[in-house]
Amino acid sequence: MSERREIVPEAEASLYLHPQTLARLSSFELRAKMIVEGVMSGQHRSPYHGFSVEFAQHRPYAPGDDIRHLDWKVYARSDKLHLKQYQQETSLDLVLLVDASGSMRYGSRSFEEASGAGHTLSPDGRAHWSKFDHATAIAAAMSYITLHQGDRSGLVVFADEIKALVRRSSSQGTWRQIVGALATFYQSEPTNAPTDIGRVIDQALAKLTNRCLLVLISDLFADPEAIRAALARVKHRRHDLIIFQVLDRAEREFDFRDAAPFEGLEGEPRLRIDPRAIRAGYLAALGKHLDAVQRIARSFGFDYQLVDTHDWLGPPLAAFVARRNAQIKRSKYG
Amino acid sequence: MTLLNPILAAVGAACIAIPIAIHLLMRRRRQPVPWAAMRFLLEALRQHRRRLRLEQLLLLGARCLLVLLIALALGRPMLGASGALAGRGQTTLYLLIDNGLASAATDGTTDALTRHKAAAARLLAQLDANRGDRAALVALAGPAASVVMPPSSDLSGVAEAVRSLAPAQSATDLPGGLALVRDAIEPSASSRSAAVVLCDFLAGSADVGRRPDGGASPLTVLASLPSETGADNATVLEAEPMRPLIIAGVADASGGGASAGGGVGGGTFAVRVAVRRSGPWVARAGATTIRVGVGPEGSASLGQGTIRWLAGQSEATASVSIESSAVVRGAQAAGTAMLWASIDRDAIAGDDTRFRPVQVRPSVRVGVVSPRRSVGRAGLTRFEAEDWVRLALSPEETTARASEIDVSEVEPLALDAARLASLDAAIVTRPEAIAEPVWRRLRGFVDAGGLLVVVPPAGASVHLWPDTLASEMAFPWTAGRQAREISAGLAPSADEPPADDLLALVRAELPDLMSAVRVRRVLAFEPAAGADKAAPLLRLADGSPWIVAGRPGGAESGRAGMVVVLGSALDFEWTDVMAKPLMVPLLNELVRQGVGRASGAWAVVAGTAPPAPAGAVELRSGASTLPVNAGRASGPVRVAGVWRAVDERGASRGLVAINADAAGGKGEAQARSTVESWLASLAGGQVRFLDPSASLSGGSVASGNAEQGGSWAWWLLVAALAAAVVELALGRWFSHAVIKAEPAR
Fold first, then answer.
1. Helical residues (DSSP H) of B15-140, grouped into ranges
2. Is the Cβ pair B32, A265 closer than 8 Å?
């Protein structure tokens, strides 16, 4: 019998956020590539130049402007009416969209080795490290960074529809809520449903009233056209999006030797195949799909990162965040 | 295609199921692999489904082909005319069909010869005369004979000859048949030669104990499989009358009351019948009924007996008595009655009856050859040897028994051919007085089936006549020139009696009769140089021969006629046997049995050229005739039956019986390995067996060349090797283990 144990949020955090990962990420800040509108003051610039704390520039007065923002000192020196403009600092709203479809339950890596926390089994009793576990770790890291820099973070767990939700918040307990929700998801709501990316994006966008940084963590085993349509709606709503496409090493290499029946995790029919005979075709189909997803993401200006569950999360995630910050700086100063 | 090891081939072919079974079992044993990216597997499978199925079929086909080729190679195929022989040159087929006695063995529905003929017909049907194929036919009934030889391209004619083959009763002569084939095969011939032996190889048709000396050119033989069951068969080995001569007057007159002298005077006629059984039923107890009759086979039996077999017993002898008068009534031409002994019908019917001619005479004519005597002596001394002989043979001149033996005295000078022709036996009491020309005439008399009894002369001190006897008669015994003085009696001998035991009927009483006899002088007998050591008829107490008998040239010569020589003169200075009770039965048996045996048995086994009575120029049996040359038929007779000998005028000269060769009637099955070894020793080359069901019904002509069969096996092995290489290549290629596919980014 598989080992089952009660979920304790504090304990779950250590399962998915490896100290080495934290060490790698602690020096980075997550910045939205776009300057988004925030509801709280923060370190992110707002495109709405207003009259807040930090002065930005002057502009000539135009009839109808609020005379409360006139800079009387300039008027005294130059006898011209200018308004003072201030750069309003906004906060980052991070929304984690984590795929929990049936295909995300696949994994070929040992849970004990991947977790690094000394546990041989997952909270729901699995001995392998699934793609969902990896997605959980990514989400935990991203929300950790976000909350650490005082921004808000929220969570959407989905498959063919939204399955679980953690509202955006910058409180200290939010991180544990997010990790706890992810860690206990399959235990509470096991599902074999496939991913319906279009429907999920629509449901998520309906809940977002301000511009957010969306982080989509999924294997994206869905029709590329459906993905394109979903991303188009995200772009249309002027949200920023980071895509983490999570794949298992076995899925990427398909290095099976013996003929065996392959059984789908989302209700697909069982296939008796010789893996070596079909490997080339499989890898070609998978490569074609990955290329399509990446091309779609780039076409909308979204960041895309392919993540292998057998790799340590820290280095690639840190590299990704660093690359993203560098891009933001280049766009600001260059 | 002919398979030499069809069972191996069948088992091997069944092994085709192994790769399929492994494939199916492996499918069942695999644990399913949970997999997320099924959409890409499905897409890849959709794109490559036809190619993958083709690969799997090719791979399975290669594996099955590999197993099949190995199976065929193990089966050692020999390809026929319709197969690989086509286009490979001419084929000459030598068919050797066993139509000997054992070929009549039947399993209840079909006899072996019918099966062999059907198999031969199927083989012939595979030949193609247009391509130059030829066939020859040899009948193996001994002595083996060429029916169609040299090989003929008229295949339909050969097939007709096969159909007309009839069963014979001689033993199978496979060595002779192979010798005929060996002589017919031309070493330089371009066509391939095949010797196919169709035989059941029962113990009667294959004497595996006899091996050839070797030295013959090697010959490859393809043979039908030996019978595995054998045949329950009984054979009449012998039907021997206790007395081969019946004196008709006695038989007609007496009607009963057998005389103590030998039973010929009684109303019954004893026949000793020896039977041998063979085959699986020897292990069981059983019974065989014997019927004895006179006349043609199938005539009413006159006597009957039963042999009750114990488990494991294979030979037994029974004595059957019939009325002597019936024998006399059954006498046919020239005073010969054909006696037959028959047993219950069994698997081989041809040896269930045995014939034996019996001589029927009104009386026995005995001539005492002696010079005219002087008279004047008195008492016992007035009787000379001639008188003692006459008294012994005709003791009571006034009774009917006196007519049984007609004794007359003949002057040696008057002993011409005509006088001799009127005699059945000649008793020479003064051999020293016989001139050489008379000895030569006596030799002619003996050769014609007469009995010659020689008594030493009483008055001679030196005996030169034994030298003349030895030279003129080719007598197997020699006698000393001087008599040896002894004082001894006669004693029964522990030795086996001679083959021609003229005293057989009285041998049980001989010890009592001999005990009163004293011998004072005797000629020493020694076997002649070069002659086989034969047992004497009677011995002295010191073991030395006293009476000897033999045929001219020895017992093995098989010739008619007989010579009997006494060791002592019929004189009281030599012996007192004349005054003893032994004298009458002794001379009577010597004459009666001697005349019967000297006239010849006229019964031979099938497969030999039968002898013919003097004067006969032809043997006739139904519509068949055989010319006679120098006292024998011109050729061997293979079918049992009764032949009538006729002279130039068409008058009958007697009957000759041809009996089944008992050696060919042994029904025991023999082991395949034993037969194979024996055949190999006969052929001097390799031997392969044909499976009748697989090969012959399959309709292929075996090449008969085992090396070719072997070579086909080798070719198949090479093909199997090639299939294995192809399978390996396909397996490796289709496994895609060599295809380097980069993982997805």
1. 17-29, 38-75, 112-125
2. no
Whether residue A144 sits in one domain with residue A8: yes
Instruction: Select the residue of B30, B40, B47 nearest A259 (Cβ to Cβ).
Output: B30
**A127 in contact with chain B, both atoms CB, cutoff 8 A:** no
A141 and A195 in a common domain: yes
Yes or no, beta carbons of A279 and B741 under 8 Å apart = yes
Structurally, chain A folds into a number of domains equal to 2
- Residues A63 and A165 grouped into a single domain: no
How much is the average pLDDT of A144-152? 82
Q: What is the pLDDT of residue A14?
A: 62
Which of A249, A276, A308 best probes binding to B when mutated, by most B CB atoms within 10 angstroms? A276
B25 touches chain A (CB under 8 A): no
Task: Identify whether residues A306 and A213 lie together within a single domain.
Answer: yes
Whether the pLDDT of residue A225 is over 80: the answer is yes
Q: Against a cut of 0.90, is the pTM above it? A: no
Chain B residues close to A247, C-beta within 8 Å: 744
A226 inside 8 A of chain B by CB: no
**Does residue A96 share a domain with residue A72?**
no
Burial class, B10, CB count within 10 angstroms (exposed 0-12 / middle 13-18 / buried 19+)? middle
Residues A24 and A58 in one domain: no
Q: pLDDT by residue (tens digit) across B635-651?
A: 899 888 888 888 888 88
As a whole number, mean pLDDT of residues B138-146 equals: 91
Residue-wise pLDDT for B563-611, tens only, equals 999 999 999 999 999 988 899 889 988 988 888 888 777 788 888 888 8
Q: Which residues contact B212 (CB under 8 A, 6 or more apart)?
A: B175, B681, B682
Which residues of B fall within a CB distance of 8 Å from A226?
Answer: none
Contact A261/B41, CB-based, under 8 Å?
Answer: no
Residue spans of beta strands (DSSP E) within chain A: 44-50, 54-60, 82-90, 93-99, 109-110, 128-129, 152-158, 162-169, 213-218, 240-247, 260-264, 271-273, 303-308
Residue among B27, B35, B40 whose CB faces A272 most closely: B27
Eight-class DSSP state of A184:
T
Whether the pLDDT of residue A281 is over 60: the answer is: yes
B740 lies within 8 A of chain A by CB = no
Judgement on whether residues A140 and A59 belong to the same structural domain of the protein: no
Summarised one tens digit per residue, pLDDT across range A170-208 is 887 898 889 888 888 877 777 888 999 999 999 999 999
Q: Is A171 exposed, middle or buried (0-12, 13-18, 19+ CB in 10 A)?
A: exposed
What's the domain range around A153?
2-35+91-333
Residue A125 has pLDDT above 50, yes or no: yes
Mean pLDDT of B323-352: 80
CATH of the domain at A115: 3.40.50.410
- What ipTM score was computed for the predicted complex, to two decimals? 0.80
Contact criterion met (CB < 8 Å) for A261 and B55: no
Answer whether B742 sits within 8 Å of A271, measured CB to CB.
no
B738 close contact with A: CB closer than 8 A: no
Same domain, A83 and A222: no
- Taking CB atoms and an 8 Å cutoff, what residues of chain B touch A287? 744-745
Please count the helices (runs of H) and the strands (runs of E) in chain B: 16, 32
Mean pLDDT in residue range B278-299: 86
Angstrom CA distances, A96 to A39, A136, A142, A214, B310, stand at 18, 10, 8, 6, 106
**Judged by CB atoms within 8 Å, which residues 14-73 of A form the interface with B?**
none
